[in-house]
Amino acid sequence: MTLPDMLAPTYTQMLGSLSAWLGKAEEQASPGEAEALLEARLTPDMFPLATQIRFACVQAQEGMFRLRGQAFPPSVEVLLNEGRNAGERPGSMADARGRIAETVALVEALAADAPEIDPAAPIAHALPQGMVFDLTAEQYVRDWTLPQFYFHVMAAYTILRAQGVALGKADYVAHMFPYLRPGTH
Asked: What confidence tens digit (pLDDT) does each residue in 8-29 have?
């Protein structure tokens, strides 16, 4: 199993769930209420839902490209800028679901020809504040990209729940139901 083999299914499953949660939010609220959810935050010092969605997409795209040793495409910068500015310009539910769909398509395309990656390959992960983490590819997957991705997905889930969207554990693990043994539900 390659490291991208581990990432791509996780990214696509959870981004698919995130899109489904947004769909449920749209079904349960009036159009204006659904759009207002994009501005909702857990606390005043946290990013709003619109940012959490875009940053989850950023983590998925960055993870795939970083492991391939490739420069990030312009879509990463677009998502970062949209996410940073989402407090003033949250966009629409259609925009958010579109960004998720674009990211899923990109991840699937990159996974289709994923190279073998040495788990011990060095990765220097630089943050905008100037900090640099020296990791192996395996450490990057385990200790950075997956936890960061899940942080933003879980923040989005929690914001939606806190705003009254009827979501439950089954929505969070919807990707598990194909594995359900018949007769055990």
From this structure: 999 999 999 999 999 999 999 9
Please check whether residue 148 is in contact with residue 37, taking contact to mean a CB–CB distance below 8 angstroms: no
- The contacts of residue 120 (CB under 8 Å, 6+ apart) are 136, 137, 138
* φ, ψ (nearest 5 deg) of residue 70: -110, 150
For the chain, the structural domain boundaries read 3-179
Residues 79 and 54: their CA atoms lie apart, in Å, by 6
What tokens appear for 147 in the block?
A: 């936890």
Q: Model confidence over 122-153: pLDDT tens digits?
A: 999 988 889 999 999 999 999 999 999 999 99
The answer to whether 95 and 54 are in contact (CB under 8 A) is no
* CATH class in words for 3-179: mainly alpha
Is 0.85 surpassed by the pTM of this model?
yes
Strand partners, 122: 136
Q: SS3 sequence, 10-27? A: HHHHHHHHHHHHHHHHHH
Q: What are phi and psi of 123, to 5 degrees?
A: -135, 125
